[in-house]
Amino acid sequence: MEAPHSPAAETTAATTANFTVTARLAVESPEQMQELGRRLAKLLRPGDLVMLTGELGAGKTTLTRGLGEGLGVRGAVTSPTFVISRVHPSLTGGPALVHVDAYRLGGGLDEMEDLDLDVSLPESVVVVEWGDGKVEDLTEDRLHVLIHRVVGDTEDDRREVTLTGYGARWARVDPALLAG
C-alpha cells in the first residue's frame, strides 16, 4: 500500500510566537486516510489533543481508526456520534485513545466538561471530531487536522489534509514528519 504522501504534497513550517507548524498533503483514498492515521499515531504521546475538522463523510473517523490501529488500542474505532465519547484502552502499554464526536454538542468547553476530557488528557490521546470552538482551551498544545473533500453528488475519494500543530510541543516536530 502506498503511503498517503503524494508528490503534490506541500510542506511548510513556521515557528512563531504561537508556535505553529503546518503540513499539507493529498490523500487519494480511504485506505490512505487510515494509513495517515497509523503514521500520525507514531508521533502521538499521552497528553496530545487532536482536533478533526471536515464535512460529513470527509474521513475523520477513518483517520481516527488508523490512529487507533497505530496506537494499538482495544475495540473497533467507530463514530461515537450517539454516545459522544468512547475510550479505547491500549493493548500495548501505550496511551488510551479517547474518541469524542462533539457534533451534537452546541456549547464550548463548559459543555465538554461533563466528559472529563481535562482528566483524561494527561494520560491519553484525545481525538475530538467537530471540536472547533469547543476544546481549544483544554491545552495550548494541540494538533488540528483539517480535511477538505469535494462536496455534492460525487464519488471522488480525494482529500486535501492540512495538519497544524499549535504550542511548544508541536514546534519541535518537523513538518515533514507530519506529512510522512
Structure classification: alpha/beta
- N-C termini distance: 14 Å
Radius of gyration: 15 Å
Give the strand content: 25-35%
What is the helix fraction of residues, given as a range? Answer: 10-25%
Name the helix and strand elements from N-terminus to C-terminus, one letter apiece. Answer: EEHEHEEHHEEEHH
Q: Count every helix, treating DSSP H or I runs of 4 or more residues as helices.
A: 6
Low-confidence stretches: 1-17
Round the mean pLDDT to the nearest integer and report it.
Answer: 81
Number of strands: 8
- Silhouette: globular
- Biggest β-sheet: count, sense, barrel? 8 strands, mixed
User: Main sheet: which strands, in order across?
Assistant: 1-2-8-7-3-6-5-4
Q: If you had to describe this structure to a student in words, what would you say it looks like?
A:
There is one protein chain. Helices cover 23% and strands 28% of the residues. It is built from six helices and eight strands. Strands 1-2-8-7-3-6-5-4 form an eight-stranded mixed sheet. A hairpin with a 7-residue loop joins β4 and β5. α1 crosses α2 (60-71). Residues 1-17 have low confidence and may be disordered.
Core attributes:
single chain; 180 residues; alpha/beta; eight-stranded mixed β-sheet; 8 strands; 28% strand
